[in-house]
Here is the input.
Amino acid sequence: MGKLTGKVAVVTGAARGIGRAYALKLAQLGADVGVIDIDLKSYQHFAGESIGEQYESVVDELKELGVKAFGMEADISNQEQVQNSFQKIVDNLGEVDILVANAGGGTGSILENKPSEMDPEQLQTVLERNLFGTVYSVAAVAPGMKKKGYGKIVTVTSQAGLQSNKDGTYSHYGASKAAIVSYTKSLAQDLGTYNITVNAIAPGYIETGRLIEQFEQAGVETFTSQTALKRLGTPEDCANVIEFLTTDLSDYVTGSVIDVTGGALK
Ligand SMILES: NC(=O)c1ccc[n+]([C@@H]2O[C@H](COP(=O)([O-])OP(=O)(O)OC[C@H]3O[C@@H](n4cnc5c(N)ncnc54)[C@H](O)[C@@H]3O)[C@@H](O)[C@H]2O)c1
Here is the structure.
């Protein structure tokens, strides 16, 4: 019996990267896991994201861990698709106890989008993907959690949502992730009375298959030197915090932001 046996968890954006590590961690803890991603085979886009040849997607990896798993392809910034995907997951796995609203990311080069020169189209895209995607995911699970009188919601912000980049670059992404912090704190106040905790995780420089290529191009030392621990983070470093935020260890923690930045926030 795992700590989360009998629970149903949904992780958005779990086809690769940190989201995949969250989904695997929740399954290792015994939860049945629903996955929503715009592309369940998105791991194929980056060499560093390879999964075992015997698996078609993370959904197969989850089943191999002995839990039930169900995958849906949907754009997290489209409310109809999000609602429909959560409904299919509920039909297959049952009402959702745990949501990790992880799907997201930025657009363009990390040297662009200074606040005074922001591209409105890119701002729109990242707000829809990060903030609206989180809001739509919460809207899909909140009624069921309220009815049960139980829920664990984890939103995903970023180091970039808590402090600005040097020279103010990538501020469209930072603004969208900062908005998630504010939304998370309000949501915790809203749902506390239903015994639903709401917290945010704020990853720093995490070596996913996608980002390791960018870190290596710029020189890994550029990033590790900004951390107290003098190393990049791993998806597992983040997944360990998800274990805390989704189990009874965090039952009296709500409205908090836990940074997993290796001490990069000073
Ligand atoms: N990797 C880092 O260093 C880092 C740092 C801070 C925050 N984050 C945040 O953590 C989360 C995961 O990051 P990652 O590095 O694993 O990202 P990633 O790009 O490797 O994986 C993101 C996953 O989300 C999916 N996705 C993207 N847009 C989607 C959409 N519109 N609808 C549904 N699915 C969508 C992708 O297909 C992919 O499988 C993101 O919210 C990201 O902003 C990451």
